[in-house]
Amino acid sequence: QVQLVESGGGYVQDGGSLRLSCTCSGNIFRVNTMGWYRQAPGKQRELVARITSAGSTNYQDSVKGRFTISRDNARSTVYLQMNTLKPEDTAVYYCNLVNPDGRPLLRSWGQGTQVTVSS
After folding, report:
1. 80 and 20 in contact (C-beta within 8 Å)?
2. Can you name the residues that pair with 93 across neighbouring β-strands?
3. Average pLDDT over residues 20-37
4. Mean of pLDDT values over 57-73
């Protein structure tokens, strides 16, 4: 069974930075597109950024130029460097494998990591 473990969240002020990490157990990490999703209170979970097995990246417009997704296949880990954070980035962040249509591949999620940005 694949397990996803997110870490790195925290409380920062407007304009601050955080780096999130997600480790994926199992042998499927290397060949799959990985993504970071987030869910703010009262809102649906949304895809923020994704990275293919070859390293191609794609971002939601609201985070372009501020967030950078990367991966380390040897460690089965995907990262999200978040700079110039804004209060509207406040959410619980999750990682998952990503289908071509942007939907998550795995039905089960990790515990997520809370990011809170104060104004």
Report:
1. yes
2. 38, 113
3. 90
4. 97
DSSP β-ladder status, 113-118 and 10-13: parallel
Query: What is the distance between the alpha carbons of residues 38 and 33, in angstroms, rounded to a whole number?
Result: 17
* Position 7, amino acid: S
Task: Give the total residue count for the chain.
Answer: 119
Strands (E), the chain: 4-7, 10-13, 18-24, 34-39, 46-51, 57-59, 67-72, 77-82, 91-97, 113-118
Average pLDDT over residues 53-76: 96
The whole-number pLDDT of residue 18 equals 98
pLDDT at residue 1 is higher than 90: no
For residue 87, give the DSSP letter. Answer: G
